[in-house]
Amino acid sequence: MQPATPSPQFHIAFYKFATVAAPDDLAASLRQLTAGLLGSILVAEEGINGVLAGSAEALDAFEAAVTAAGYVGGIFTGMQFKRSGCKTAPFGRMKVHRKDEIVALGVIGVTGVDTARRGGIDVTPEQWRALLADDSVVVIDNRNSFEFRLGRFKSAIDPQVDNFRDFSAYIAANAPAWQAAGKRVAMYCTGGIRCEKTSAWMQDAGIDVYQLEGGILNYFQSMPDAAHDWEGECFVFDNRIALDTRLEETGTTAEQVYDDPADAWRLARARRLDGAGDA
Fold it and tell me: Is 189 a catalytic residue?
């Protein structure tokens, strides 16, 4: 008898800002729902942020369960999932982490829960392409510098920050000059979560901002000719390391990404695969 052929493996990334009344209970529930899957989910009072890998059937079952109307009051109904195929197993274990935030901005009092009311202007991939071609728009890469170096939208500016928490200081220092020059501000990140939380703070500071809906991954998924606007590769926080504009793995290694001695700790963390990335 021929051995059974393993099911193809897929990767999903997801997040949603929502008020979680009992985050410890949610974390315990998610540990049960992810039995048989690999990856990482962050849980906080402001929502969930996760990346998982497994068979299509197992991922379908997880998505249906967590978005069901009866699951924790239906707060995750409508949550979007970005799915891509895997040649390399993205993760080596499954972890659900209870955190204070699902993405840390480093500004006291800013939560992602109310971003729908206070956040920036979501633009579709098609609208984003028009912004990229507009000289009156400043396009900001809302990721770490090592991610920017690996790949970026062709007109983007690197804030040259080593940590997401440094991003708010960069914006505060440069926004007055942009406003004085009559520039509009647009920003993007890998999956949208950083921009969604940052934009609420920016709006409160009087800075109008456009943000790419669903981030880079959604752009690649939605635009067959995404390579027209993108150069390089897109870093992902798992064993696949980097994807091209077709959402396919490249041959880039972690050692090539973290080639600066200052990033040695990042390389060590990547090898541990500890914690969810920018979904």
Answer: yes
Q: What's the Cα-to-Cα distance from 116 to each of 16, 18, 23, rounded to whole Å?
A: 11, 10, 21
Instruction: Give the alpha-carbon dihedral of 44, 39, 115, 122, to 10 degrees.
Output: 180
Q: What is the DSSP letter of 93?
A: S
Owner of token pair 């799915």: 83
CB burial of residue 108 (10 Å; 0-12, 13-18, 19+):
exposed
Least confident of 100-104, 118-122, 145-149: 118-122
- Token pair listed for 74: 């239906």
pTM here? 0.86
- CATH for 9-98, among 2.30.40.10, 3.20.20.70, 3.30.70.100, 3.30.450.40? 3.30.70.100
Q: Which CATH number fits domain 115-272: 3.40.250.10, 3.30.70.330, 3.30.2350.10, 3.30.70.1280?
A: 3.40.250.10
Question: Given 86, 189, 195, 234, which residue is catalytic?
Answer: 189
pLDDT digits (tens, 9 = 90+) for 204-221: 788 889 999 999 999 999
Strand partners, 140: 157, 187
Residue 117 vs residue 49, higher pLDDT:
49
Where, residue-wise, is CATH 3.30.70.100 in the chain? Answer: 9-98
**134 closest CA partner among 165, 155, 114, 104:** 155
